[in-house]
Specification:
Elements lengths: L10 H21 L5 H19 L1 H12 L6 H11 L11 H12 L3 H4 L2 E2 L5 E2 L3 E7 L5 E7 L3 H10 L1 H11 L6 H14 L3 H14 L6 E2 L12 E5 L6 H4 L4 H20 L3 E3 L7 E3 L5 E3 L5 E3 L2 H15 L3 H12 L4 H14 L1 H4 L3 E2 L2 H15 L21 H13 L2 E2 L1 H11 L5
Helix pairs in contact: 1-2, 1-7, 2-3, 2-4, 3-4, 3-8, 7-9, 12-19, 13-14, 14-15, 15-17, 17-18
């Protein structure tokens, strides 16, 4: 899907489009009773992909998550929606070449021809916030230039004021019944940061430092002289998609899974930063087992008690110490006894099964079970004297680990010793004796 389309910016316009999606989905449900259900689901899914792709912003992010998170879409419609929405991960509708050039020249303060020796007007990737163009510098280096979609700042602001869109995003990472005001503010803060490519460049350099020297992890170099708030230029990286990587031999797929685990949890536990956007389009896979990591726009800082008890949970899991794990989990979740704590701790322990039961095979059924497990916890939210507590600040996006990241691992369909992977980098960092 590379059709050039303008981002609808107005709040009412975007709300009407979302309402239209609901009507289409309802019609498809009715039609499925009288015609082939698979055809009805496929038709509706294609329409949903088209509308969400044109809207971009948070609406497109919901579609991206639905395209790969196991359990996000009901099983009978899963195949149709995943197939239709997969295009949103790499090729949402593009913005016009003239508008993109204007942003580059305005932000970098020079004519495009003076900034780049070569420039391809056709983007090779287009996503929810921006699109990426191939270009070359005067010294011959090939680069990737990510440019924000014109009007995306206003579109995102509209989405952040639309309760329906926000609830869809929150529902993908946390129970909707949680303290709505605080959770929505947390979601707003993270997504507004994605509009600041200067901040993303800083974080990309930080992650590169955390993983420097790791032969299996590649993070493209940022070209600071060609980057600004709405333009981010990095070295050009090429590689296979997750779908292509999933067809490689078992040894190579295991190397991919181990590199992914190291990237995420070394970043968390050693670097104190969580890259909170683990969708498949952010990874490029190489034949030798290396993985290139892209997109550092949505990052959650981890510090203080969250980092301390997060490390404690991982160390306890590595030592198979369930009692210590439960103590650290209770502290980080802020629970205070009762049925809610019991279910929350059991669920959290299940999320750490790749460490407790290493070597472990992350499967799509396992991930679906985690998504479904949230429902049992949600039932306790309104139960009197269940001991329910709100999710502590800063925890909303961490739920994307067991949903998004684990769904990526499940596509690789391979058993790996994640405990050994984690133990190695924790010892190297002096965090494990």
């Amino acid at each position: 899907m590379t059709t050039e389309k303008k981002v609808p910016e107005g709040r009412l316009n975007r709300l009407v489009r979302l309402a239209g999606l609901g009507a289409r989905a309802g019609a498809a449900h009715l039609l499925s009773r009288r015609v082939d259900a698979a055809d009805a689901a496929a038709t509706t899914a294609a329409q949903v992909a088209e509308v969400l792709g044109t809207m971009r912003g948070l609406a497109a992010k919901v579609g991206q998550m639905a395209s790969y998170v196991d359990g996000f879409v009901p099983e009978p419609q899963r195949e149709a929606y995943e197939s239709a929405l997969r295009s949103l991960r790499a090729a949402a509708p593009a913005s016009s070449p003239a508008a993109v050039r204007a942003i580059v020249e305005e932000d970098l303060g020079a004519p495009l021809g003076a900034l780049f020796a070569a420039w391809d007007d056709a983007p090779f990737a287009s996503a929810s916030i921006g699109q990426v163009h191939r270009a070359a510098l005067a010294d011959g280096r090939e680069v990737a230039v990510k440019v924000q979609h014109p009007g995306i700042d206003r579109a995102l602001a509209s989405d952040l004021e639309n309760a329906g869109v926000i609830q869809a995003v929150v529902g993908a990472v946390a129970p909707r019944e949680l303290d709505s005001k605080r959770v929505l503010e947390e979601v707003r803060a993270r997504f507004l940061e994605e509009l600041d490519y200067a901040l993303e460049a800083e974080r990309q350099r930080y992650f590169a430092g955390v993983h420097r020297g790791d032969p299996a992890i590649h993070i493209p170099e940022v070209i600071a002289s060609r980057s600004a708030r709405r333009v981010l230029t990095t070295e050009l990286a090429r590689g296979a998609t997750l779908e292509e990587a999933a067809t490689r031999d078992e040894r190579t797929r295991r190397a991919y899974a181990e590199a992914l685990w190291r990237f995420v949890f070394k970043g968390n536990l050693v670097g104190g930063m969580f890259n909170a956007d683990p969708h498949p389009g952010n990874y490029l896979f190489h034949p030798d087992g290396r993985v290139t990591f892209l997109d550092f726009g949505c990052v959650e800082p981890l510090d203080g008690a969250r980092l301390e008890h997060g490390r404690g949970m991982h160390l306890a899991a590595l030592r198979k110490d369930e009692a210590a794990f439960a103590r650290h989990a209770a502290r980080i979740l802020g629970t205070r006894g009762g049925r809610f704590e019991e279910l929350s701790l059991a669920y959290t322990c299940r999320c750490f099964e790749p460490l407790f039961s290493a070597p472990f095979h992350v499967t799509r059924a396992y991930v679906r079970g985690l998504v479904e497990g949230v429902m049992a916890i949600k039932e306790q939210i309104l139960v009197k004297d269940s001991g329910f507590v709100q999710l502590p600040p800063g925890m909303v996006f961490l739920n994307r680990l067991q949903f998004g990241f684990y769904s990526v691992l499940a596509r690789l369909d391979v058993e790996a010793d994640y405990a050994a992977v984690e133990g190695a980098f924790l010892r190297e960092a002096g965090l494990l004796g």
